[in-house]
Structures are given as structure tokens and as C-alpha cells.
Batch of 2 targets.
Target 1
Amino acid sequence: MLPNYYQFYCPVKILSGQLAVSNIPFEMTLLGCQRAMVVTDKGVVKAGLIDMVKSAFADSDVKIGRIFDEVPQDSSDKVANRIAKMFKTERCDCFIAVGGGSALDSAKGANIVLSAGSGNILDFQGADKITSDLKPLIAIPTTAGTGSEVTKVAVIYNETTETKMSFVSDKLYPDLAVIDPRMTLTMPPMITAATGMDALTHAVEAYTCIQKNPIDDIYAKTAIDLIRRYLVRATQDGKDTEARMGMANGALFAGIAFSNSMVGMVHALAHALGGVCHVPHGIANAILLPWCLEYNLPKVPEYIAELSGLLGGARAYLEPLEQAEETISLIRNLLKKLNRISSIPEKLRDAKVEEDQLPEAAEAAINDGALVYNPREVSYNDALDVYRKAF
Ligand SMILES: [Fe+2]
């Protein structure tokens, strides 16, 4: 069924394939740029991934002006300021962010600082506050999960107030997303499983939330199909380039889907667990996804049912409710399989969550913005109940 109204926007050029990184210098010239600033973290450098980027520039007229490799776990306003300062001193004209969500958000944060001139980054918090054009941004993801290479969001930690600030703007879309399977080959099994389940959650929530639309649906379904084919394989054998490529594309499609549809209850509850109990985002989503789908089942049985075939279900003749239950049990089986291969936890108690932390998390969850898009309303008691089931 078509919604009464919807919008779709994804202005990111995508390069996907073996050796895609090698095309970056040419793409930089198309963007009118000559000196790139690479934004990354020490782990990415240690894995040899920056050497791969550097070698792409070996015979090129365009250059890497500076490599900033001190991106912390959570990008912060202070880091964004430092990067912006270096960008100016080194006379760079574009960013290449290499890493997970934090590297990309740090580059986006620095970009906001630069566009603000002498202004304050805090003035641009919230939705659609950035009006000037930003410097070109090239994103090279090294995990297959966040989808931030195709999203218009940046989350920056405010070191003074100790809170996370969200920036949402069409100006924050990267210009180029470079999906090269060589960049994800060194990801360990547990991170592969967790980031892959984050991508699956993006696709499932995009397909079942209230802002779903027919274009996002196509991306979400393709993402789910790819993740079902390749997540177990990539977790089992990190050097399986076909599986790595499949997962990198799955995460990319899921990112395009949720960037337009938004997410829902799983993310709200996962964000809260991250804040209160420091559970990594992908692990929290992996554990919560089946329980939240069960909670949403009475409201959107058809949407959940429509995903069973993509997850490997063969019984298309079932009633919607029965078929939706099959979808949920297929996701549970996937998590079980991943647990056997990578030890990703299946329960919150195994993810270092204490039962007495759940009320505080439930309180935080019901104030999370992602709940706005969930198909069923969630009260404090509902959130607590889902946490207890997943505990
Ligand atoms: Fe996520």
C-alpha cells in the first residue's frame, strides 16, 4: 500500500567493488579537489588499511595533505575542532573518512565547524540547521553495519555538557561512498556479526516503521536478502571476499533505507542500553530485534510476514500472523548460528547488563527520538517488559 505522502533522497555516488579505493584520486579531480585530509583511527592504520588508500595516490596528481589518525571511540566537538584547524593549516580541500561511524562523524563534525567559519558548532544542532555547502566528503567504511556512508546524520559528543548532539541535514550526505571488500577483511568475527546484525536491524526497522515508503522498501528487502546470504559466511571466514562484498552492500542498502524511513523501537532500546550499560550498538540490536518484532507484531503483522521469504522461510502459504512469527524465529535462528561461530551474546545478561540497570534504561529508551517512528506506542512498562524478556 502506498503512503499518502513520502520523500526519498540519496545524493551519494557509490563505487563498489574490488579495487574501488584505487579510483579515489580520479573521483577527487571530478569533485574539483587536490589535497585530501584523511580522518581515521589508530586501529584502521594498524590494520594496514591507510596504506591501501595511500598506494592509490602513488602516481597521482592529487595528494593526501594530512592524515589525522586520532579519532576516538565517540567523535567529540573538541576532536572536530582540532581536525578543522588542521584542515585549514594544511590547506586541504576535501575529507576522506576511513573507518566506522566515529571516523565519519568526526569528519562530518569538522566539516560543520569549517562551514560555520567563526561560528559555534552548537548552533547547528538538530534538523536542517546547516545552510552553507560543506567541503566534499569521501567515505570508506571499514565495517559493514552502520551505513553512515549514505546517511545525513552526525552524532557528536559534547565534552563540556557530556551529552551526545545530533546533526541532521541533507548537507551531511557524503559525496562519495567507496565500498571495497579489502577494507573489511580484517574485521574480527564478533564485530562482523554485531555490525551485520545492526545492518539487518536497519533494514527490518526501515521496512516496518511508520515512515516506510516503496523506494526504501526495495533497498530494505535487497539488504535483508544479502545479509541472509552472506552474514554467516563473512563471520565464519573473514577472508571470504564475496561474503565481505555482500555484507558491505547489504549494510549500504540498509543505510539508504533507514536514512529515509528512519528506525524504531529496537534502536531506541539499544541506544538506551548503550548509554546506561555501555552495550555495543550492534550487540544490543542483535539481542533486542526479535523481542521488539514480537512486541510490534499485533500492529504490523503483514510487514513482518513479508520478510520471511527473504530470511529463508519457505512457507509462503501461512496466514500473516503465522508467517510473521516465522520471520521472528528465523532471526532468532540466525542469532543462534552467529553465537555459535562468534560468541555474540544472545541475552542481555551475557552482554554485561545487570538486571537492576533495566529500569534506568527503560526510562532513557522512552525518551529516545527513534520511538517516534515505531509502529506501536511504547510505554515505560512496555520497554521494561521487553528488556526483561531479552535479559
Ligand atoms: Fe544502528
Target 2
Amino acid sequence: MATDSRMASRLLEQLPARQGFGDATLIRHRPGSIDLGGGNPDVAALPTALYRDAARDLTESDGFAASLRYVPAPGIPALRAWIAEREGVDAERVIVTTGGAHGLALAVLGTLDAGDAIVVDDPVYPLFLRTLDLVGAHPVPVRVGADGIDVDELERRLEEGLRPKALFTVPTFHNPSGGTLPDDRARRLAELADRYGFTLILDDPYREVGFEPGAVDVRSRLLDSDRVIAVNTFSKTLGPALRVGWMVVPEALSERFVRLRNRLDGLTSGTLQELVLRIVQRPEYPRVLADAGLGYARKARALQQALGARFGDDIEITDPSGGFFLWARLVGDADFARLHETAQDEGVFFQRGEWFAVDDDAHLRGTMRLSFSEQPVERLVEGVERLHRAWRQVRG
Ligand SMILES: Cc1ncc(COP(=O)(O)O)c(C=O)c1O
């Protein structure tokens, strides 16, 4: 519907509607259908007992009423200090955010101007591309694989003259493709950022949901570089409805990021920050994370096995060591748009791989992101049965 141009800003006027990923019009909810599309944690893995204790402790404490007041824009000091210690940085560099998406929006607004180029993962977390619409920056795809973003390819492109202002990557248990950037590649990335003068936006929401307890350092990487903005969230460990996350910014920019934040939402709920603090400080918290990781590992294996058993040589599947997703490619030719429709008729939803493309999606033909985090094992297995029925109907 056309609107009167005086009603809306150019930004509001021109924001594209969601297409593909996140477009609710593409999802047909029907009773009993199995959703393998989402990024929700397993509700059974969320520490509800710790929430109950924390809420009681907070609401019965003398400080409760004060937690309902405005709190400092970068976060309450105690939570900033807890995050800073965990990240191994000065607390001045930590800003508590209202979730990961908010941290990404701040990073984009604080780094990029209209027309700037930013290197992004290919396939990419699609909602990050939409954040770029806020400033009109231009994404430049670089392939990401089992070892994260392709640093050789990036270096070649830089040598050929590419001059990005920033680079965005999900370095650990990549969404959607599951890979992890090894430390030596991460170092090379930081060296390239220094040499060519661009900012690294490292978005790491899955870092704390590794399958093997202790296998991944929970600290963000490269924080000794003054070119890194690390964005994170409690969404995958404490639940996305909480809307609490954090970012670590270069020391030289931290005051200015707080100024920016003051002009947007001003603060993250102090009450929720107090709640989070009481949960993460509990001695049981590391065990909660470890148990969640083991649960996700079990589900990932179950989904891999079911896919392998049903599809055999018709499918290639990644073997991640953490996160919420399997990335799969169906071998052979088929009408993959029809597969997605037919799968929904059969009662299973997944994300089409093409929806994670930056621009050209030909190389993602036949790929799928299958989420194992939310559904119980028997639903995962049933989901594969339904997917396979759809595949039998459409494969060439
Ligand atoms: C790669 C990535 N970044 C950021 C987010 C957003 O996190 P939040 O729900 O805290 O906004 C997600 C959530 O799915 C994600 O997968």
C-alpha cells in the first residue's frame, strides 16, 4: 500500500519486507507440524529453578525497588564486572545490551556509513543483512566453511583492492553452517584488519553451547585487538525472551558507544540485569551450561543418524561440535522450492539454504538449515521421516 511521503522517514519508507528467512508468510502452521526452522534453545535446558530462586531473592531484597529505577546506560556495575572478568577485559569496555540483535545494531550504527562495504559470511545470518539496512551499507560475501570465514579468499580480495570498513562473522558454531574459526585463522583475520584498517564485528551467541564441556573457551576472541567489537547474548543459554546480551568494544570507542546507546533505548532493564546476575553467579551455572551442551550433542547426533539412515547418499551433512543447527545439502537435482512446500504439506518446516545467501544463491541450491535444538529426539526423527517423504515426491 502506498503511503503519504510526509508520514514516514526515507528509512521507514524504504525498509524492505522480510524475504525468505523470518518471513512468516512462508510458514504454514498446522497442528502437529514439526518446526526444524527456529533458533530457540531447548526449554528443558533453561535453568528455570535458578530463575525462581533469583526472582525470589531479588524481589525480597531491599534493592528490588531500586532495580526498577533507571540504571546506567552501559549496564549495572556488578553485571558489567562479571562479564568483564569472564571476557578478560576492563569493565569500561563492556556494554550490557537488550540482546544480540541490539548489540549488532549498535555495532553497525557505530561503525558504518551509507555506501560503506562490509565483508560478511556467505552463507550469512540473514538478520544481520537487515541490520545493514539501517545505514545503507553494502555487504560483500566471502565464503564460510567448516573452518569459518575463508581468510585466504579474503586476503586475495583485499590484495585486489577491496577496501571494507568492517567484517562480520559468526566465529563459533556458525549460524547457519556450523563451522568454527580456528585460532590461527582468527589471528590472521586480526592481522588483515590491522593492515587494511577495518573493524571486526564478531557475533558469538553459540559460543557457550559447545557439545563438549570446556572444549571452547567462553571468552570472546581477539579482544586484545583494538579493531574488534564482540557481540554476545544470553538468548541461547538463558532464553531469548530475556532480551539481555552484551558487547565488548574497543576502549577508545566505549564512551561514544554509550552516547549512541543513550540516544536509542538508554538502558537495558536493571531488574532483568539483577536477575541475570543472580543466575550466572550461582555455583550451579557452569553445570547448567555443560548439561545443555551435552543435551544438544545428543540431539545433533540423533538428527544426523536419522538423516543418514533415511537419505543415505542423497545427503551431505555437517558435523558441528556445538550450536543449534545442522547444515545439509541434498545431492542431485530437484525443485527445491517445491520440496519446501511439500515438506510443509507433510508436516515439517526447515529453513531453505538459499535464504542465507548474500546475493547470488546458486551455490546454496539444495542446502537446508535443520535445527535440532528445540525438538525432542523423537520429533527430530519423525521430522526426518516427513522430510524424506517430501523428498521422494520431488527428487528428479
Ligand atoms: C548469529 C546470531 N546472531 C545474533 C542473534 C540474535 O540474538 P538475540 O536473540 O539475543 O537478539 C542470533 C539469534 O538467533 C544469531 O543466531
